[in-house]
């Protein structure tokens, strides 16, 4: 299986990081800026991020932060955390001078916050990214049909009844042309089925949270993430 990359976002402690890494996570993301989608205490300091990074043995540390800032300061923050990749805290395009500074420092960019709705035209999903020169995208993180609690069942069973709906085949085609991990309503009972149906994706993404600020935000509680990873 080549679609075995596991990304876990909003980890808040070295203990959580060690557990999810031990269960297969290869990208561990910490939030240095508050995520407007969630109402909890999962934002960490640079010092806490560095501690989490030191707890990792093989997984790479990703920092999610506001990238609309001074490029020099961003590089200092990333260096202080010891991260090798960054992710915008919201679905925004980092300014070109920030992208250049990150590229010069050898820091990859993960573009997250992408949400694919059931009625989205596949050609629109990455339109805003594909039109940008020197995007420097190391990875894309897309949450699929987050407006549905049972998003996988809807995509598998309901979408095929309507040709204009977003389909599993559309997701595989997007993943074939863009390095992508996907967020869905993963459970111990469906995660293997999902990966078998999505051979083109790089893997799965799980976003930790305790409480959402809005409907349609994709998230999992820590205990649920552990159970999903144990099922793989």
Alpha carbon gap, first and last residue:
12 Å
What spatial form do the alpha-carbon principal axes imply?
globular
What is the topology, as strand order, of the major beta sheet?
A: 1-2-3-4-5-6-7-8
Number of strands: 8
Mean pLDDT: 96
User: How many DSSP helices?
Assistant: 10
Low-confidence stretches are none
Strand content: 15-25%
Helix/strand-derived category reads: alpha/beta
Q: What's the Cα radius of gyration?
A: 17 Å
Helix content estimate: 25-40%
**Order of helix and strand elements from N to C terminus:** EHEHEHEHEHHEHHEHEH
Major sheet size, sense and barrel closure: 8 strands, parallel, barrel
InterPro entries: Aldolase_TIM (IPR013785)
Protein name: Phosphoribosylanthranilate isomerase
């Amino acid at each position: 299986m080549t679609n075995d990359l596991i990304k876990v976002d909003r980890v808040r402690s070295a203990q959580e990081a060690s557990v999810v890494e031990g269960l297969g996570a290869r990208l561990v993301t910490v939030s240095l800026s508050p995520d407007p989608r969630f109402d909890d205490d999962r934002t960490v300091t640079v010092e806490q991020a560095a501690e989490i990074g030191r707890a990792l043995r093989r997984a790479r540390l990703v920092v999610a932060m506001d990238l609309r800032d001074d490029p020099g300061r961003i590089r200092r923050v990333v260096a202080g955390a010891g991260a090798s990749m960054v992710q915008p805290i919201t679905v925004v395009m980092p300014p070109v001078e920030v992208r250049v500074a990150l590229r010069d420092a050898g820091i990859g960019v993960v573009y997250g916050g992408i949400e694919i709705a059931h009625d989205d035209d596949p050609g629109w999903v990455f339109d805003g990214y594909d039109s940008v020169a020197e995007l420097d995208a190391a990875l894309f993180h897309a949450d699929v049909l987050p407006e549905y609690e049972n998003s996988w069942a809807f995509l598998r069973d309901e979408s095929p009844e309507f040709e204009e709906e977003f389909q599993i085949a559309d997701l595989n085609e997007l993943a074939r042309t863009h390095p992508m991990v996907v967020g869905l309503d993963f459970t111990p009972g469906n995660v293997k089925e999902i990966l078998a149906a999505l051979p083109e994706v790089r893997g799965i993404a799980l976003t930790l949270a305790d409480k959402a600020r809005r409907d349609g935000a994709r998230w999992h509680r820590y205990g649920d993430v552990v159970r999903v990873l144990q099922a793989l």
